[in-house]
Specification:
The protein is built from eight helices and seven strands. It is an alpha/beta fold. The termini are far apart.
Length: 253
């Protein structure tokens, strides 16, 4: 097995489940030490235990990415524990409530934007200074296919994911000359707890989501995570400012 991230240290936010958990495990598989960050303590610690059981090294740090002090503390704890920061997967996010633009509440808008977009910005803001100390680093942000197209009744989520793609491009341009790469990954419909909550509301949604995918099925979290880990590796050394679709052909339609 090629351990392309041997000696590297990575942060994964939203690492308590789904794509974040899968990415944390794959980072370790490829040789990295990982900080798992999430507001979900039980899930985050479970991810760390899974990694330990697989012979890897990981640490859980409870983090609300919408709060600057907690994001700063997350990065500081990473460096304090492992001595450096090489990679970051800014993945924490929520979908919010289904509602039209008119019916979307200010509370729902603020909660989604603060978690998804502000959270990604705060992570980038505090990760970059540590990476600059080493003149190298790779950041991947989780966008969405709804960061490229609209989706009715998810205005806050759609706006936040469009914003993440723009934020990714700006960060990539600002720090390319310093050896840092910043990209986004665009997952297709993936079997995660977030999607499961939607299916709990209406099981008929599964047929709708599968029907959106030209490939004819939902993604497994590991399929998205593989792309994330690749983007953080030296194999992607000339890739920056990219929003990489791992979406079963959704955006090709």
């Amino acid at each position: 097995m090629t351990r392309s991230l041997e000696g590297k240290v990575a942060i994964v936010t939203g690492g308590s489940s789904g794509i974040g958990r899968a990415a944390a495990r794959l980072f370790v598989r490829d040789g990295a030490k990982v900080v798992v960050a999430d507001i979900n303590i039980e899930g985050g610690e479970e991810t760390v235990q899974m990694i330990a059981g697989e012979g890897g090294e990981a640490l859980f740090v409870k983090t609300d990415v919408s709060k600057a002090a907690e994001v700063e503390a997350m990065v500081n704890k990473t460096v304090e524990t492992f001595g450096q920061l090489d990679c970051a997967f800014n993945n924490a996010g929520i979908s919010g409530e289904l509602a039209s633009i008119v019916d979307c509440t200010e509370e729902n808008w603020d909660r989604v934007i603060n978690t998804d977009l502000r959270g990604a910005w705060l992570c980038i803001k505090h990760e970059i200074p540590e990476m600059l100390k080493r003149d190298a680093g790779a950041i991947v942000n989780t966008a969405s296919q709804y960061g490229q197209v609209g989706f009715p009744n998810l205005c806050a989520y759609t706006a936040s994911k469009h914003g993440i793609i723009g934020l990714t491009k700006v960060a990539a341009l600002e720090y390319a000359e310093y050896g840092l790469r910043v990209n986004a990954v665009i997952p297709g419909n993936t079997r995660t707890p977030m999607l499961a909550r939607a299916l709990d509301m209406d099981p008929a949604f599964e047929a709708m989501f599968v029907g959106q995918e030209p490939i004819g099925r939902l993604a497994d979290p590991e399929e998205i995570a593989e792309a994330v880990v690749w983007l953080c590796s030296d194999a992607a050394s000339f890739v920056t400012g990219s929003a990489m679709a791992v979406d079963g052909g959704y955006l090709a339609q």
